[in-house]
Automatic annotation (TrEMBL):
Residues 146-215 form the FERM domain. SMART domains: MyTH4. GO terms for biological process: signal transduction. Residues 1-141 form the MyTH4 domain. It comes from Alectura lathami (Australian brush turkey). One of its GO terms (cellular component) is cytoskeleton. This is PKHH3 protein. It comes from the Eukaryota. The lineage of its organism: Eukaryota, Metazoa, Chordata, Craniata, Vertebrata.
């Protein structure tokens, strides 16, 4: 379909993604390539299961378990798990891969830590409007949270730690508590402000999507 990015057939795009995965293994800075793969999956949803299957294959019996190339695949799998849910059959197979093939066989390894993070993320992911920002990808690669700065009227800016699943309502509630306004009869919301407009952020909106739009 017409859009900002031109695509060919799903089969051709799947081959291109496989080639990108091969490049990922040797990339010194994998972040832009990871974001490009995620964007293709967002634009072409039928390829989500394809990438999950390819990543399961790449992380099964790798030549150098826990090596830099292997961990790049786990980092992409981490970003995928925070952005897309695979179909139920693929999800069942993925959970088997995480539990039996990874955590059980390589306990306390970096691979097992990624597997645990991914398993927990899959229980929270509901789909994204935008792919993760470059900053979000960096923190996901380290299995950490992002720091979001919210400017409050009449008060200093507040820093809030958020994950890929944190909603605007959750952040607003935390700030209301921090500012001692829990007993206030007023309603509170987050606003997204640019040079051109200011608009409220929907309570169920993922804050990570808002940050990606700013990026």
């Amino acid at each position: 379909a017409p859009g900002p990015r031109s695509y060919t057939t799903l089969r051709d795009e799947a081959v291109k993604l496989f080639n990108s995965l091969q490049q990922l293994e040797s990339q010194r800075d994998p972040v832009p390539l990871i974001q490009g793969i995620l964007q293709t999956c967002l634009d072409l949803p039928p390829l989500v299961d394809e990438i999950y299957c390819q990543l399961v294959k790449q992380t099964t019996e790798p030549p150098a378990p826990g090596g830099p190339g292997d961990l790049h695949y786990w980092q992409l799998l981490t970003c995928m798990s925070c952005t897309f849910l695979p179909s139920p059959p693929i999800l069942r197979f993925l959970r088997f891969h995480l539990d039996r093939r990874t955590e059980s066989r390589f306990p306390a390894s970096e691979m097992a830590k990624y597997a645990c993070f991914i398993r927990e993320a899959l229980g929270k992911t509901r789909g994204r409007e935008c792919v993760p920002s470059l900053e979000e990808i960096l923190v996901l690669m380290r299995r950490q949270e992002m720091i979001c700065t919210v400017h409050c009227p009449g008060a200093a800016a507040c820093s809030v730690a958020i994950s890929s699943h944190t909603t605007a309502e959750e952040v607003a509630q935390e700030l209301v508590s921090r500012l001692g306004l829990s007993q206030s009869p007023n309603l509170f919301a987050l606003y997204e402000q640019t040079r051109l407009r200011e608009q409220p952020v929907g309570s169920s909106t993922l804050l990570a999507d808002v940050l990606t739009r700013f990026e």
